[in-house]
Amino acid sequence: MKTGTCRCGRRIFFNNHSCLACEAILGRCDECRSLTSFTSHGEHAECDVCHTSVHACENQNFHVCRSYVSDADKLCQWCQFTAVTPDTSIPQQVSQWATMESAKRRLLLELHRLSLPPYVDNLTESHPLSFLFLADTVDEQGNEKRIITGHDQGVITINLAEADSVHRERTRVELGEPQRTLIGHMRHEVGHYIDWAWAMQVDPEGYHALFGDPQAIDYSQAMDHHYQNGAPENWAENHVSAYATMHPWEDFAETANLYLDIMAIATTANDQDRAHFDLSPQADMPKLVNEILQIVVEASEYNCDLGLAPLLPEQLPPAVIEKLAYVHSLRRHDTAPA
Ligand SMILES: [Zn+2]
Ligand SMILES: [Zn+2]
Ligand SMILES: [Zn+2]
Ligand SMILES: [Zn+2]
């Protein structure tokens, strides 16, 4: 993640909300889109970069956001993507919501930076994107309504329980996943969004050649088959995960998830002056992947030193790199064909 700079010169990290050195208020300015410090003037504040007079995003009332906007009583650009928020009278749901919004902001910032798809704002009319953060409920008759995490035509639903680390770890073990994170869920689901809103608009032929034709395979049959029989033994030769073998849609979403993971690591490495990766749409993807994997091997060693999971797979087969290059190529289309 890119860092910002406080007016005192200290670096600002994504989750900081006040400067440890000069105690300035920190956050993201909706006007100039900087991660910066603000000068407080009672009711309002002034952005230290663009000097606009700003107010706290309305969601700061619930401590789920750190943005500042020019109009009072308005939501910031990031909070506006959330169509349904949890029940704010339940404190546990508010804290889970804050965890959701933090992961969502990280995701949207990355999509914005990569223009993948050409920023989601520009698809508002044809392919709007929104998020629903919902909890399982039980009605008066004792009927349970379970929320299924997933994507449907631009609407990403995430079960609030996924913000709970105990729930995530239990599910991870049950499903035999190497990792289960909130940002990973968001990247996977937005992968389905990119598939629907962009890949299918600009390059369906390239998609079919690599992932298969999703319309030719019945999704619910494919799901039943996957949960009954598991993935083929040689899945790692062509797929990024066992789950990706289930259906072309899941293959694309898992690949997009890994692409966003790789670009996030590369952005951090550049921002920390650790590397000078070319992250433009024209960048050579196989070369970039190989360079990032060297960082992954090193960082995974640090993780193992502390008993944590490896960062990402340390090797990727040529077939997966080709699929990653396809996701990357989607950034070279700046307008969809009519
Ligand atoms: Zn400071
Ligand atoms: Zn500003
Ligand atoms: Zn906000
Ligand atoms: Zn999926």
TrEMBL record:
Transmembrane segments: none annotated. Residues 5-89 form the Zinc-ribbon domain. It comes from the Bacteria. Gene3D superfamilies: 3.40.390.70. This is Zinc-ribbon domain-containing protein.
